[in-house]
């Protein structure tokens, strides 16, 4: 098993947080993992992305040229990265912010109204966790429970956010399950 | 899986590695893409009774390291390309004074302020002098987060062994990248009680200087230094991947080595006899082994995130004809397909 993943969106959507959480979850499942965040000049409103590889075998290059799995939270990122998605790969996208029709027929497509679902839980900033929760059902790259288990690693000193993030992961997962 | 492996960035791994090798003095000035490292030291050093100083400039930081080193401390500074340029004068002074220190360069795109993406354009600066005068640094090139910690620890050991500054040279991607790593205690004895400045009570005063006005004195120092640099050549280290029967050889370090390793793996799946030679010490360059391997292969391709710096060493060792080059500049990463095309 080897998934080469790009998580992309705009700064402030918790892209790096989502990428790191995915990586941690892979790690505690005993897989090899790497994660390269884009960094520095990003700020709220700019674009942000993160290269994550989760594999049962050793990972040589940590760089993802052509992902097998693309997770996008805004339209700009979709335009930038969709052409790079490998044939037979999968796209999980935030349909709340992406209205454009996806024309590629050679990839699996999953849409999640992540912002709407996040708002129902009280905050749009949870859209990243909605998407990851849905992903855990659709693609089983990592288990939902692994994601939940790793939240405390990323929220040291911010423990009050563990509960809402957990709820959002579960909500995303349930959405995907019910939609199927 | 060992439970002590944690997901950590390369920058933080350098910091934790240093602390576990006994680093108790750090001075630095913020610069992307290595800020996590300075922040990490600010948080961790006070916890272990060490000294952290955010200096007013890179010049101040490296000179503070010089002072701490003269007092026998295991001292480190870190920066990224433009900041490392500002430190060259003091690095030359430390080489002349024979003071140990660890300097970490998390390279970004240049020249000038350039940008904040990872790059490898400081190879010349690191391995060919950088500052003035006839001196050498041992330069270690990690290629994963684990090595960011391990090589920083080794850098402390080598710095004290040879009483010479040692540089860890990594690109910004390695600083930012997160991977699982296990950072262990690294204990070693050093002989600093025999040379450090700790008050001259009951003994002869000691002096560190790099100013030797009489020609014969300065020549004497240089002869001694050159002898030491010859000894330092024993530290040549490298890694090989599928080189036994290779017909084409890739040569790369840092993140480029990771990309090349993948190309070799994919090539082998198709029965292509490709191998990778990865220098770990960029100075001393592992010349003898490269020369041996170079004789056996029909083609050599050097891959760098620069316009071609290490390739000059490889061509010096293997000759012009055999050695090709593929490089990206300005912080761009090498692309596997492009390397593939150049190999077939």
What does this 3D model show about the protein?
The complex is a heterodimer of chains A (about 180) and B (about 350). Chain A is α/β, with parallel strands linked by helices and about 180 residues long. Chain A has helices spanning about 15-30, 75-80, 115-120, 125-140, 145-155, 160-180, and strands spanning about 1-10, 30-35, 45-55, 70, 90-95, 110. Helices cover about 40% and strands about 20% of the residues of chain A. In chain A, strand 4, helix 2 (about 75-80) and strand 5 form a beta-alpha-beta unit. In chain A, helix 1 crosses helix 5 (about 145-155) and helix 5 runs antiparallel to helix 6. Chain A is globular. The mean pLDDT of chain A is about 95. Chain B has about 350 residues and is α/β, with parallel strands linked by helices. Chain B folds into 2 domains: about 5-200 and about 220-235, Thiamin diphosphate (ThDP)-binding fold, Pyr/PP domains (Rossmann fold), CATH 3.40.50.970; about 240-344, 3-Layer(aba) Sandwich (Rossmann fold). Helix content of chain B is about 40%, strand content about 20%. Chain B has helices spanning about 10-20, 35-45, 60-70, 80-85, 90-95, 125, 145-160, 170-175, 215-230, 255-270, 285-295, 310-320, 335-344; strands spanning about 5-10, 25-30, 50-55, 75-80, 100-105, 140, 165-170, 180, 240, 250, 275-280, 280-285, 300-305, 325. The chains are: A alpha/beta (about 180), B alpha/beta (about 350). Chains A and B meet through helix 1 and strand 2 of A and helix 8, strand 8 and helix 10 of B.
